[in-house]
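Table 4 source record.
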Amino acid sequence: RRLVKMMRLNYSRQLLFLSLLFNSLRVNSWIVNLPSTMNNEHHANLHDPTDRTLRTCRTAGCRDWKMMMGAGEVRRVRLGAGMVEVSEIGCGTSVWGETSKGFGSSYTEPILSQAFKELVEGGVNFIDTSEVYGHGSMREGCSSEQLIAKFRDQLPVEAPPVVLSSKFFPAPWSHTLVGGGVRLGRKAVVEAVRGSITRLGCGQIDLYQIQFPFPYVGGQQALLEGFAEAVELGLCKSVGVCNFDVNEIQQAHAILAKHGVPLASNQVRFNILDRRVQQSGLMNVCKEMEISVLAYEPLAKGLL
């Protein structure tokens, strides 16, 4: 127990340090991926490895986070120029449902459910997923999006609302992973976001993102017009991109602006070991355009 408490305090200090660092570098929110935040060395001495997701959850944004910050709840930040507000720390779910990453063996659905509950009750309301996360478990109803839907339904009525973020996989063969038609033109975006809404069990997605830059069939304009149409149809509140460079972010911003849709965010890899997005000037460009920077892998997959 003493060892676990020491480890929790150590992680809380790291998270507090990273929060202060990222705030100074204009990072708006940062997404800790559970349960892969802790590497083997960090949990090798813990006697119950099946509980590591819950321990990581508690150190990455819940009880100890609130204690270190000395506040009643995790601070909220606004995404871009829109009205969607998220917790300063978010939860990544890229391995939820991924049997190749230990789902069903190293960590199970009940453990993830408890972690989800701890996060939300602790003030972390920003849950980030993708249509392809855990797609191999979709038939069993255990893809990342489907698990999140289950966990939301299990929350008590008085629980704070969850802000849902998902992603569009732009490769033309995406339908072989998640169903639907071939990814072609703007209509494929609308079809995909409706598929995510069904799996998430929600009426509207708060933030819908392009998962990575890709030479989309039909062109980038058709792709982004599909995102604008999804907003116009009320399928999502805001739209964002992931891993876009300066030129790509400027192009996306311009195309969406023609339709009166602001580009809310750019999700990028960023930590104290990988600061390329800062050195390239991308962060400054995003600030000028009122685009929020969302940092994933802030603890470098457990190296920090």
